[in-house]
């Protein structure tokens, strides 16, 4: 059997899963002596991959809760926050409003309802896809997913290390969780800013996304 993990799978799944696996070995250190090294390595990779999926599922469930920490998708925050977070500058406002009205059939950005903002975010991404400029967006989104997975895994590890009385490790996990929360917000903001700026750059160009939207 050939394991062919790509960068996204490693960053988004195996890395967070490995954190949980390492914490588990603190609860049951005999697991490290249970098999031959070659078998142990293969089992560890597969187990970390499985744990990574479970951590990702928990992250998806907690996505709305992360909004309390100021971490939210572009389509889930108000128009005034777009400016406050620096997603576009004041001198770009008129141009952005024009593009938004073109894509939302006359609704300006300030008048957009939550459902319309979510539709607009999807339209922005489709515009970037049609323009062939999604590599940076996908990179920032993958880094966000990695950070989200690490937050969840470090919180799980924090609880597990407390159970075994490893307070030094618990403090490390708590600090690591706080730092990765900061990274989550950073990469979400970078992604949103990049998405808006690409929409401003590509919005006037004919794209497949606009044609699809009109059908």
Task: Write a structural description.
- By secondary structure, this protein is mainly alpha-helical.
- The chain has one domain.
- The chain has eight helices and no strands.
- Helix 5 crosses helix 7 and helix 6 packs antiparallel against helix 7.
- The radius of gyration is 21 Å and the shape is elongated.
Please state the overall shape, judged from the principal axes of the Cα atoms: elongated
User: Could you state the order of secondary-structure elements as H and E?
Assistant: HHHHHHHH
Query: Please, what is the average pLDDT?
Result: 82
Described by strand count, sense and barrel closure, the largest sheet is: none
Rounded Rg: 21 Å
> Counting H and I runs of at least 4 residues, what is the number of helices?
8
Instruction: Give the class from helix and strand content and strand pairing.
Output: mainly alpha
Number of domains: 1
Helix content: over 70%
Strand content: under 5%
Q: Which stretches are poorly predicted, pLDDT < 50 over at least 5 residues? A: 206-215
C-alpha termini separation? 45 Å
Extended strand count: 0
Task: List the defining traits of the structure above.
8 helices, mainly alpha, elongated
Secondary structure layout:
Elements lengths: L6 H21 L9 H25 L17 H6 L8 H11 L10 H17 L4 H29 L3 H36 L5 H7 L1
Helix pairs in contact: 1-2, 1-6, 2-6, 5-7, 5-8, 6-7
């Amino acid at each position: 059997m050939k394991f062919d993990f790509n960068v996204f799978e490693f960053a988004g799944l195996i890395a967070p899963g490995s954190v949980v696996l390492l914490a588990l070995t603190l609860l049951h250190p005999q697991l490290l002596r249970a098999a031959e090294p070659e078998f142990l390595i293969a089992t560890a990779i597969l187990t970390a991959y499985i744990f990574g999926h479970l951590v990702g599922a928990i992250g998806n469930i907690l996505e709305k809760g992360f909004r309390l920490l100021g971490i939210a998708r572009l389509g889930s925050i108000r128009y005034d926050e777009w400016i406050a977070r620096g997603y576009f500058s004041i001198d770009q406002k008129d141009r952005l409003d024009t593009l938004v009205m073109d894509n939302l059939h006359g609704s300006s950005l300030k008048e957009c309802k939550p459902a319309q903002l979510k539709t607009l975010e999807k339209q922005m991404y489709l515009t970037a896809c049609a323009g062939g400029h999604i590599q940076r967006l996908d990179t920032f989104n993958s880094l966000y997913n990695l950070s989200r997975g690490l937050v969840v895994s470090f919180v799980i590890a924090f609880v597990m290390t407390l159970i075994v009385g490893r307070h030094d490790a618990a403090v490390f996990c708590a600090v690591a969780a706080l730092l990765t929360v900061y990274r989550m917000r950073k990469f979400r903001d970078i992604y949103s800013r990049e998405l808006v700026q690409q929409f401003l750059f590509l919005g006037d160009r004919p794209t497949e996304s606009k044609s699809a939207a009109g059908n």
